[in-house]
Structures are given as C-alpha cells and as structure tokens.
Amino acid sequence: MYQILSKEMLTPTICRMDVKAPRVAVSAQPGQFLIVRPDEQGERIPLTISDFDPERGSVTIVTQQIGASTADINACEVGECFSDVVGPLGLPSEFVEMSPGKLAGMRYIFIAGGVGTAPVYPQAKWLHSRGVPVDVIIGAKTKDLLIYKEEMAAVCDNLFICTDDGSEGFHGMVTALLEKLVVQDGRKYTQAVAIGPMIMMKFTTLTAKKLGLPIIVSLNTLMVDGTGMCGACRVSVGGKTRFACVEGPEFDGYLVDFDEAMRRQGQYKAEEAAANEKHVCKIGRGK
Amino acid sequence: MANRIPRVPVREQDPKVRATNFEEVCFGYNQEEALLEASRCLNCRNPRCVTACPVGLQIPRFIAQVAAGDIAAAAAVIAEDSSLPAVCGRVCPQETQCEGSCILGVKGEPVAIGKLERFVADYSRDLEPAKKEIVTNGRKVAVIGSGPAGLACASDLAKWGYDVTIFEALHKAGGVLEYGIPEFRLPKERVLRHEINAVRALGVKIETNVIVGRTITIDELMDREGFEAVFIGTGAGLPKFMNIPGENLCGVFSANEFLTRNNLMKAWREDYLTPIHAGAKVCVVGGGNVAMDAARTALRLGAEVHIVYRRTEAELPARREEVHHAIQEGIIFDMLTNPVEVLGDERGWVKALKCIRMELGEPDESGRRSPIPIPGSEFEIPTETVIMALGTSPNPLISKTTKGLDITRRGCLVADEQGATTRPGVFAGGDAVTGAATVILAMGAGRTAAKAIDAYLKAK
Questions:
Q1: Which of A269, B129, B292, B312 suits B82 as a labelling partner, its CA being 20 to 30 A distant?
Q2: Using an 8 Å Cβ cutoff, are A29 and A107 in contact?
Q3: What was the ipTM of the complex prediction?
Q4: What's this model's pTM, rounded to 2 decimal places?
C-alpha cells in the first residue's frame, strides 16, 4: 500500500501530496509520470511526478479535481493509503540524456499552465542545479489559481507570472507573455517547453513557431495501463501514430496534431458526466 | 462398449439470457455427468492426448480417477503438471490439442477432456489442498509477468525450493487471464484468483505495480536485489492497428483497450469508475479469440455487434466453442470483408467502416487461403464504434532496457528451445518469445524454462 505522508491544498481544487512509493522514487526522472489507483473501484489515473525523494522513498503528486476519480484522490487524508501507485512511466525529458557539451549551449524557457506547473518544477530544478539557464512563465486564469510560485522561483533564473484577468503579474495569456519576452525584451532561448492544458500547448506551439523557437510539449492523453498495452493514448505526431505513454509524454510541439489530441481526450466525456452525477465519494469518510 | 456412450453435453446459460449478463456461459459438468463422460476414455496405451498437450498433462490417469470417483486423486494427478487447471479447462483450444488427438474423435466425438479438467479443478477448489513440504534452498529467481508463462515457471521453481518473486506491471496478477479474457469465459474471483492464490501458497511472492524496464531493470534485479536468474514472461501486449485512414477517430479502440477497461478495470460494473464506450453498433475487426471476446463483451454492453473478417468462417483462428457461442448469442459475421478506411463525422467520431469484399486465393505460409480484394467492391457499414482485434506483439520495454538481450525482426525475444536468451542467467518463454499464442503454450514454455533455470543454477 502507498501511504500519503503529507497533504496540502494549493487551491480549492488542486492538491499536493507526498506519497510513499520507494521503487518509483528511486527510478523517477524529470519528465516522467505515474499512475495512481486510489481504491479498488477507482480508475487508473495518470499524474505527473512533481518531485521525488529517493532517500525518503516518496514522490510528490499534484492533482486537480476534474472528475469523480480525481476527487477521490484529493479526498484522501494523511495516513491513508492508495491501493496502487505505479511508475515511473514514459521517457525522461530529452535533456536528461543530453551530452554536457550540448546542455551547456541550451537556454530554456518553460511555459507552465495551471496544474501543468507542477511537472515543470522537477525539470527546472534538474537544469538549474546543473547551471543551465532556465526561465519560467507560470500562467493561470486568476491569481488564486497560481501554484508553485515560491518553489519555482528557487529553481529558475527568472520567474514570470501572468493571469488572464490581470490580478497578478502580466495581464494576458502565456502566449502573449512569451512573445513579449522574446520580441520586446529581447530574451534569447534555444528551447521552449510547454506543459498545461492541451489548448494552451496548442497555442503556445503556434507562438513558438512564429518566434522560430523549438518547443517540446508534454501530452496528458487518456491512458489505462500506461505501459503501451491499450493504445488509448495514441496521438498523431508528424503524421505517424505514437503512444504517448511509452514514446512520450514529451513530443516536438511542431509535429503534434493538437486538434485530434483534444478530440481524443474528450472521448469518454458522456460516460464521465453520467458517472459524476451518480458518484458519491467514499474515500476518507467513516474511517 | 464404453465408446458407445455419446459425448455428454455440457449445460450452458441460455444464449438470450447470457447475452445480457457477464455470468459464466458454461456451467460445467456435475459429478454424475463427469463420471459418465470419464467412462468414455479408452485409456489408450500410447495416449496421443498427452503428447498433444503442451504441458504433458497425464490425461488418461486423471480421467481414470474421475471415473473411479476419486476427484481429489484426479486433482493431484493434474497438479503434477499444471497450476492452472480451472483456467485451462476453460480457455485451451482443446479441439486442436488433446481432444483433437483423441482416438474416439476419428469416428465420433472425442472425450470432453477440457470439461473434465474443469470439473476436477472446480470440484476440488473447496477441498483442503494436500500440503506438500517444500525444502527451500534460498536461491532467488525473479519472474517477470504474472500471466500463464510466469505462473507456470514460478510454480515449478517454488516446488523445487527456489525463492521466487513474480513482478507484475499491472495492479492485479494474472496477465492476459485478468485483463484480456472476459468474466463470462473465465470468472475472476471464483476461478482465477483461487488458482493464483494456490501459486502463492507454494511460497511464490507476487509484487504488483512493478514495470521491469521502468520501475527497475533486469540488471538492477540481478546486481542489486540478488536474483540469480530471471525469467521473462511478459507476453505480447502491444496492440496492432491496420494503419488505414481514420484509425485515430474517436470511437476506434484496440481490443486491448476495450477488454482491459472491461475486465481489469471492471467497467461493466456500476460500482467501478472506469468508463467504457460501446454505443448502439460495434464493428470488431479480426477473427481470433480476442475478437470474439471483444464482440461478446460489446454485445453484453447492449450493442449490435458485427465481426468483420477478411477470410471465411473455416479460417477463423478462434476456438471453435467461442465462435459457436458468439453465433448463438447473435453476433453478426461479415466474412470476406476487409476495412480500408474508418469514416468520421464532423465531430471527429466514427460514423462508418468502409470495407472491401474479398475472395480466397492460394494458401499462404500459414496454410490458410489468403484473401484477395475484389476491385471496385467497396461499401460502407454504418457503425458507432470500431474495435481492432488484429493481434498483438511483445512489449519492447524490457529488450530496450536490458543489455545483451537480442530480439527478432518481429520484436520477439530470442530464446533457444530451453528458454535461454542471449544473456546468461536470463530466460524467457510464452508470447514474449513466440508472439501471440495460447495460454497453454505459454505455460509449457514457462515449465521448460523452469527446468533450464534449475539446471543453470545447479551448475553455477
């Protein structure tokens, strides 16, 4: 069993937990994800790994409540256990395998949207600790939904905040801020990495393309097993079908068919809506 | 004469009723029926059924015990060679193995060996298992994958005293028996769980949620965790697609996804959260057991189901019983039909499967007559869902992350007849080596590799 060691609500719907999962903690690398099954009746839910501590044998997950299953995860309390935690899944970020020579020439800009900020953290941390220049944009609808501000500030050179409503930082979307940084402020980057909602990654990719900036995106597709068995996660990348769970989750943004990916992501919407109506969260009650 | 008795028919759920539930189709024999059927066995001096069985089950010996009414003794005979009799009795292709070789089958109906095996296993499930004292030798062997190959290999090694740990990637043990074969063919709690627990009772440890190649590597298992030998029984889990236009439309699923959602994740049950989508009409592409399982699952979820297959019924690779059951339940077979494109609507969902009519030409290397498209015969089958059941190939996760492990052009692990791979101390068997095959062949390969591992470790 996988015990919850700490729990903190970052926003009313986004929860951060440290979970005991020694084997995952030892092997995890930036860019990888894991799957949690909260209880016997629960779904297998892919979640990004936002930190890992091999000595303590724990991993940090950040979960946004969007349906019945994510609600069940966030309803778990410290001391309780998830039935299953499996990982790390997917390939590590490209830079993990990069030669020191190549890495020395890189300048990264991360564009983090909403709960996608959490998986940016281990990537920025890894690069920053190796002296690679890293800037980070964190975007959210409004200031109360911003997460990981302090944590991120500690692992990057420059942190930029933007909100759609202008309640904090730059007033506007991440795409506008990225364009401003490069065009107006003349900041130079060799690689952009966008992690967030599919729609945000689509438009960030279009902006990066306009700026001539290579961009990597991390796709949060549907998955069941996460090991290449089911193909629920298939995406068209450069006209070829790829499995995000084993060949991703990170791909060259220029090559991803985002419209197809967004449609595929919504495949079970009707079934999920029906389930949400009926679902009574049973975790954390009466224990 | 004994063989004058006709083969005892087995009781089944009414097709109309079972098409709406996930209860087991076949009820199996009761003791009276089993005794009568067992009396048909001629107890041949050179039993061809034993030779035809991939694990060499002592068939006439166990049947003789059934005929004598000593079911516990029959179970003991089976246990010498198989750790999964209730599973094999249900899912083996008996018609091409034991029963296909039965001498009674030449002029009449062969002995119902599968049904008898199942009866013995089911009957003795509630009996106190005969405890055999195992002398442990403390030597550690890792088995990767808890499917038929892994369970068979682990059982034998544990019986010989090895300290065996099975590593399973999913959250439940059983491999394809758990995620692939539906409840109505193989009840999970009552049958499968019990047989897996029997393997545990031999001292085998099963650690779930460990993906070898990601969570830990084979090198780490051997260098860090002290495993002296490794058996890879990771099966063939990667789904194949046709690479035709429209395959990534919403509503196109691999049979693996459809069945995993239904079986492993229990999407058919109201109290489980994982969703599944069948819709009003489903086309299943393929003609193997997996295609039949997906079709009959979709039927039970309320859909009208078509099997789209490019050859004819005679070439269907599925077990004969499954095809028979599928027809009884009302699955529609569209034969000599091959999809060329999946057509979508403006929302990106499937609306039809565009197919071409086929005719049979000369036999190919597998001996089956190869289908040839008839030019200009394209037509559309309106459908809401398309399920691709075209076969599977081995997962490359382990071969990619283990040094010195060779694979074939088709992605199968290279192993000799004893299961030894190109890396010393690492053995493999089952679908990971052969490509997708049957439960019983995988079990046979697991047992063969167990012998090779024993010999390797004794010589070490």
A1: B292
A2: no
A3: 0.93
A4: 0.94
